[in-house]
Amino acid sequence: MEVQEILAKVKNGSLSMEEAERLLKRQPFEDLGYAKLDTHRKIRSGFAEVIFCSGKADDHLIRIVGKLYEEEGEVFGTRASKKQYEMLRKIYPELQYDKISRIIKIEKKGKVKAGKIAVCTAGTADIAVAEEAAQTAEYFGSNVERIYDVGVSGLHRLLSRLDQIQSANCVIAIAGMEGALASVIGGLVDKPVIAVPTSVGYGANMHGLSALLTMINSCANGIAVVNIDNGYGAGYMATQINRLGVKHE
């Protein structure tokens, strides 16, 4: 139960002061033995804990999903396999899975989304990372405009969508190969650009290292770079920026 919900129930008389005090005094994490779930993270940061599914034991993942769902009324996980999804769906039929981004989620209905984030990719091979970013931002309450396959090898494609890109509170630029898209966008907008290098490319791409180095060494201003293929990190940071933009509208 969220703090606002507890306070509202105290105000309307459906929850006693003693029970509210007991709920608020709970330790700020749930100790499962093998995991310590940060159940107060949303209170501190505005974002509930997210599950990184890859590599987790089945029993551990089941309990972690269950506990976070119980606490928040929704749950979000990244890098989930189809096998993990099918296992969890037997327990939570409402669980959704996107095989492109590998995201699993149970989401509250009727969420209000605000502001705007533009998620741009250089090519279609970058869409898996882009969807991880876009769906993360949407889950946390941002409107997202997807602008895919606008890489610098055909600059007219990017320029044809410039109005939509420039109207966003934040832009996520996702590219593999040489990673030039972020620099180009950075020179065209007055909002922060989050660059995401992807591991898409031929041998000298070095699994995304060439794109990472290009983005870090960008001559354009206002660009921040996250790790290779880290769509989740980009979506999270873009949402923080978007929330600031919404507050100042």
From TrEMBL:
GO biological process: 'de novo' IMP biosynthetic process
Domain PurE: 115-247
Pfam families: AIRC (PF00731)
InterPro entries: P2CMN_synthase_LarB, PurE_dom
Protein name per Swiss-Prot or TrEMBL: Nickel pincer cofactor biosynthesis protein LarB
Lineage: Bacteria, Bacillati, Bacillota, Clostridia, Lachnospirales
Species whose genome carries this gene: Candidatus Anaerostipes excrementavium
GO molecular function list: hydrolase activity
